């Protein structure tokens, strides 16, 4: 006699940046196990791949939603909703203090308190009076090879991935009009001031933030901290 099949509960949420509706289910034990193994590895690429695999398994209408190209804030929000429905509304993490290297304080984070620090910013970057760049927010695919401490090559690669088009007056050049070599040369031809405008877009882009406060268990120093991103939310 075959064992009974369990039906997963179906939920719907709206992604905060793209405003797309997504249907999803909680993750299963086998999916949670693979994610935990990935997080234990502390390898950013492995973790990002496991998160994508989990989302693809849990999202019903993923033929209408390209998880690889969604803004990272949407990906993190969707993962958080799935995690809440699967394993509860809180997560236990360890947070540091500067009193000494091994000072770690356990706190319980309410995942429901994670919100966008802003909803949108201007993605039209004026380089000169006539020339500009239209940028998109970084996606899972554009950051999949980025380590926790982003280096110069990774930063330039991410920027190149996020260029949607370049215009000169009324003439618009989309990604079909130039190759990666031409784009790299264009970005490297920017002045320092012009490049800072591009960097500011990424510094100011919407992020999922959870504000927490705690006192260090070792020295009782009071801390206020903004948790950002999946790795912060789950230690």
Structural commentary:
- By secondary structure, this protein is of the alpha+beta class.
- The protein has two domains: 11-116 and 207-233, no CATH class; 124-204, no CATH class.
- 37% of the residues lie in helices and 24% in strands.
- The protein is built from eight helices and eleven strands.
- The strands form four sheets. The protein has a four-stranded antiparallel beta sheet with strand order 6-7-8-9. A three-stranded antiparallel beta sheet has the order 5-10-11.
- Strand 3 (90-96) and strand 4 (104-110) form a beta hairpin.
- Helix 1 (29-41) runs antiparallel to helix 2 (44-58).
- The termini are far apart.
- The mean pLDDT is 88.
Strand content: 15-25%
Structural domain tally = 2
Helical fraction:
25-40%
Low-confidence stretches: none
Distance between the termini: 43 Å
What is the alpha-carbon Rg in Å? Answer: 20 Å
Keywords:
alpha+beta, four-stranded antiparallel sheet, three-stranded antiparallel sheet, 37% helix, 2 domains
Topology (SSEs and partners):
Layout: E1 11-14, E2 21-24, H1 29-41, H2 44-58, H3 72-87, E3 90-96, E4 104-110, E5 115-116, E6 124-126, E7 131-135, H4 140-143, H5 152-162, E8 163-168, E9 171-174, H6 180-188, H7 192-204, E10 208-215, E11 222-228, H8 229-233
């Amino acid at each position: 006699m075959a064992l009974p099949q369990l039906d997963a509960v179906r939920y719907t949420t709206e992604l905060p940046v793209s405003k797309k509706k997504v249907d999803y289910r909680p993750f299963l034990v086998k999916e949670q196990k693979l994610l935990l193994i990935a997080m234990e590895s502390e390898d950013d690429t492995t973790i990002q791949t496991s998160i994508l695999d989990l989302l693809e398994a849990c999202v019903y209408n993923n033929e209408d939603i390209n998880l690889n190209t969604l803004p990272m804030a949407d990906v993190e929000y969707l993962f958080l909703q799935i995690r809440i429905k699967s394993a509860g509304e809180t997560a236990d993490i360890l947070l540091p203090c500067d009193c000494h290297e091994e000072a770690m304080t356990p706190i319980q984070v309410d995942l429901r308190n994670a919100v966008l620090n802003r909803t949108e910013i201007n993605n039209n970057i004026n380089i000169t009076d006539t020339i500009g760049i239209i940028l998109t927010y970084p996606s899972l695919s554009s950051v999949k090879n980025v380590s926790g401490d982003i280096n110069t090559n990774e930063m330039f690669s991410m920027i190149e991935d996020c260029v949607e088009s370049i215009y000169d007056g009324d003439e618009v050049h989309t990604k079909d009009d130039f190759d990666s070599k031409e784009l790299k040369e264009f970005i490297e031809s920017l002045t320092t001031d012009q490049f800072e405008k591009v960097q500011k877009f990424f510094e100011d882009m919407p992020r999922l933030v959870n504000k927490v406060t705690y006192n260090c268990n070792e020295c009782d120093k009071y801390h206020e901290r903004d948790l950002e991103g999946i790795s912060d939310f789950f230690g």
